[in-house]
Structure formats: C-alpha cells, structure tokens
Design a protein that fits this description.
Helices cover 52% and strands 0% of the residues. It has 136 residues and is an all-alpha fold. Helix 3 runs antiparallel to helix 4 (58-66) and helix 5 packs parallel to helix 7. The longest helix is centred in the first third of the chain and has 16 residues, at 7-22. It is globular, with a radius of gyration of 15 Å. ANK repeats lie at residues 44-76, 77-109. InterPro entries: Ankyrin_rpt (IPR002110), Ankyrin_rpt-contain_sf (IPR036770). Keywords: ANK repeat, Repeat.
Length: 136
C-alpha cells in the first residue's frame, strides 16, 4: 500500500535531497538531528548519502555517516555511495566511506568496477591499498 504525500511534504523531501546535492552539511545535519530519517530515499532509490557522495561533498558524507547513514544501501541501479564517490574522484568522500566500513566490491557496478571502467588509478589505490602506489 502506497500512501500519497501532500505537496508540502513532497516539497520538503525534495529540499532535503537538494541540501545533500548542494553539500549544505550543517543544515542537513540539523534536520537529521531533529528527526529526519538519515536514510531518506528518493524515487530512484538514491539516499541522502548517495547524493552527497555523487556530488562530491565529503563533509556532508561524513556528517551523514556520523548520524548512522547506511553506506551499504544501493539505489535502483545497484550503485552505492562509494561507487558514486569514486566516479566523482572525491578522495575525502571515499576515505570517509571506507573508514565507515563501506565494501569496495558491493553494488553493481561496484566501486572497484567503477574505478577500473573509468580508468581512475588513484581511486583504485584508495580502494585496494595492497595494490601499491600507481604511476602516471
């Protein structure tokens, strides 16, 4: 059963997703601290964390993780926040996600797959430190 949301509630939800996209860390954190579900998900399965990671906002990623955001969630296309951060080459977001326990092999494509497909050796080195430094 799907409940219909009123226009005001939908507008608020869209604003929260915009805060994640824009990297409005303090404002978004205040809403989460006040009760906004940290794993709020849009109609494409994107969480606040996935959007913050995709838009390369490491401080927002860290704040959401600190508030319990689930780094293992995938969107409707099977993508994780870690894969999104790798795609955007956001070193800070990748490090925060890895420190929180994000799995580089989770998702489809995974973060490792993303780094390989887009030829991002610096990102692959973060994901697989045992592979050693890369030279360009």
């Amino acid at each position: 059963m799907t409940e219909e949301l009123d226009a005001e509630t939908l507008a608020f939800a869209h604003r929260m997703f915009d805060l994640a996209r824009d990297g409005a860390t303090a404002e978004l954190a205040d809403y989460v601290d006040a009760g906004l579900p940290v794993n709020l998900t849009n109609d494409k399965g994107d969480t606040l964390l996935i959007l913050a990671a995709y838009h390369a906002h490491p401080d927002t990623v860290a704040a959401l993780l600190d508030r319990g955001a689930d780094h293992s969630r995938t969107n409707d296309r099977g993508q994780t926040a870690l894969a999104a951060a790798v795609f955007r080459s956001s070193t800070g977001a990748v490090r925060a996600l890895l420190a929180a326990g994000a799995d580089p092999d989770h998702g489809s494509p995974s973060a490792v797959d993303t780094a390989g497909f887009f030829d991002l050796p610096q990102m692959l080195a973060l994901l697989r430190p045992e592979s050693g430094p890369t030279t360009d």
